[in-house]
Each structure stands twice: as structure tokens, then as C-alpha cells.
UniProtKB/TrEMBL annotation:
This is Cytochrome c oxidase assembly protein. It is found in: Cell membrane. The keyword Membrane applies. InterPro entries: Caa3_assmbl_CtaG-rel. GO terms for cellular component: plasma membrane. Keywords: Cell membrane, Membrane, Transmembrane, Transmembrane helix. The keyword rRNA-binding does not apply. The chain crosses the membrane at residues 24-41, 53-76, 82-100, 112-131, 143-162, 174-193, 218-240. Pfam families: Caa3_CtaG. It is a multi-pass membrane protein.
Amino acid sequence: MIAPYCGAAPLPAEWLSRWNLDPVLIVALACGAALHLGLLIRERADDRNARLALAGSAWTLIALLLVSPLCALTSALFSARVAHHVVLIAAVAPLLVLSLPQRFARLRLPGVAGSGAFVLHMVLLWLWHAPAPYAAALADTRMFWMMELSLLGSALLLWLAVLAPAARLGSAMALLLGSVVQMGLLGAVITFARTPLYEVHLGATAPWGLSALQDQQLAGLVMWVPAAIPYLIAALMLLVGRFGAGLADEPAR
């Protein structure tokens, strides 16, 4: 009997009451957020308030993903699980990197380390969305956390390389483009599969008005299109920031 960490697949009528009140998780999130925000509060930096806001946003998103009824919804719908993963790697991860305390700025990975981070993240993303490893993660809490933490950890390494102050613009743009392409390919594979690939969701999607195949196709579209948006926004911000800085450094005529 499969027992997902977020609980059995909920019915629409009960979904909003299905909060995950795991005390270990709540204590871990509270301690992590308190430590992160505490380090920022103790700093004296011009951008401290901005980084506090980014950190608060990151930890709020983590709580929404793992504590709110959205956690239970991922047990019913593969599309919800994919959306969960997209938010984790494309929103939470860059927010955490951008809100790092200044004393940890050296952790940002410039240069060739970015290529390794990209390959690692791509391998893990494809691995955990393959049917067998995905089913194992839903059947065992330890595997579930291995999936969640490895996806977030590899995404942090990737965003550390992309957002490194010393990173070359071309390298950062290549990492972002590569991320969009490989996620789009994964989304296409999921979308155009002719049969349901994820047996753990068979029967759980019907109360939500979707067949397992329709749910899978929706998940593929989420991975294919909306998932690209944060990477494109990051690329635009990097371009504006670099070219804006270059114009500011030009001597006035």
C-alpha cells in the first residue's frame, strides 16, 4: 500500500482541510527561517531589507508547498506535483540565493562549476520524473525527502552559478537557456506520451475531472511552458543589470 508523505490522495470536498502538520517539518522550517532571517537582521548592509523580503518570500513558498493543502493535492495530481517542483527549483532556489547573507557570498559558484551544477541538476530532474523513481519517492518518506532535497540542492548550485557576481554574462545566459531547453524537452516527453506513465496516480485524478493521461499532459505543459518563465525573467534581469551598469560606467560627454 503506497503511503505518500503528503498523505493519501484527497477528494475535492476535503482538500482544503488537508494541512500537513508534521511537527518535525514545522520545527525544521521554523528553525531554518529563523536562522536565515536572523543572520540578515544582524547585518548592516544597504540592501538588507530587500534581502529580508526575498528570504521571507522563499520560506513562505516552502511552507505553502509542504504544509498547506497543496502538499496533499500533489498526492492526487501529477500536474500538481510538477508545479510543486517547478516552484521549488525555479522560484524558491533563486530567492534563497539572492537572499544569502553577505558573509556567504563566496558560496556563489562562478566559472566552470556552473556546467557541473547544470548537468547534476538536469540528471536529477529527469531521474525523479522517471516513472520508477517517482513511484518510489511517493511510496517511501525517506525517498520523498531525497527527491525534494536533491532537486532543491542541485537547483541552488545552478542558481549560485547563474547569479554569481563574477560570472560572465555569456556563461550565465547559457546556463539559463540550457535549463529552459532541457525542461522543455522533459515536458514534451511527458506531454506526448501516449499512455499514462505514472501508475501511482491512476484512479486518483478522476474525482478532479481528469483522466490520468490528461493530468499527465497538463503536467508536461507546466514543465514545458510556465516553467520557462522564471529563467527568462532572470535572463532579462541579467541583461538589464549588466548593460545598465555598463552605461553607468561610461564617462559623461
